[in-house]
Amino acid sequence: MIFAGFTFLFRFLPIVLIAYMICPKQFRNGLLFLASLIFYAWGEPVYVLLMLFSTVSDYWHGRRIDAAKKAGKPKAAKGFLISSIVINLAMLGFFKYADWLIGIFNNVTGCSVPLLALPLPLGISFYTFQTMSYSIDVYRGEAKVQTNMIDFGMFVSLFPQLIAGPIVRYADIEDRMKDRPLKAERMSEGALRFAVGLGKKVLLANQFGILWETITAAPPAGMPVLTGWLGILAYGLQIYYDFSGYSDMAIGLGAIFGFQFPENFDHPYESRSVSEFFRRWHMTLQKWFASYVYYPLGGNRKGLKRQIFNLLVVWGLTGIWHGASGNFLAWGLYFGFWLVLEKVFLQRALTRLPRVFGHLYTLTAVAFGWVLFTHTNLAEAGQYMARMLAIPLSVPQGAALAAGASAGGGIFNAQTWYLLFQYGGLLLLGAVGATNLPVFLAKKCRLDGKKWISAIFIAILLLLCMAYLVDASYNPFLYFRF
Amino acid sequence: MSAKMEHDGQQDVQDHSKSGGRREQKRDAHLVGLYQVLPFALMLGMLAVFGIWQMLSEKRAYSLSERRLLAQRPVPTVESVMDTSFMEDYEKYLTDQFPMRDSWITMKTYCGLLLGRRESGGVYIARDRSMIELHMPETVEGETALRNEECLLGFLKDMQEEGAQHVRVMLVPTADSIWEYKLSPYAEPFDQQAYLERFSLMLDECGLSECYVDVWEGLSACAEEQIYYKTDHHWTMFGAYIGYHAYVSSYSDAGSMPDGVLPWTSFRTEIVQNNFHGTTAAKCGIYNVDDEIVLVFPPWSDEERYRVEYDGGESESDSLYERRHVGGDDPYSVYLDGNHAVTVITVTRGTGVKSEAADDLSGSVDASGNMTAEGKPLRSLLLMKDSYANSFVPYLTEMYDEITMIDLRYYNGSLHTLMQEHHYTDVLVLYNLPNFLTETTVYRLGK
Question: How do strand B291-297 and strand B166-172 relate by DSSP bridges?
Answer without folding.
Answer: unpaired
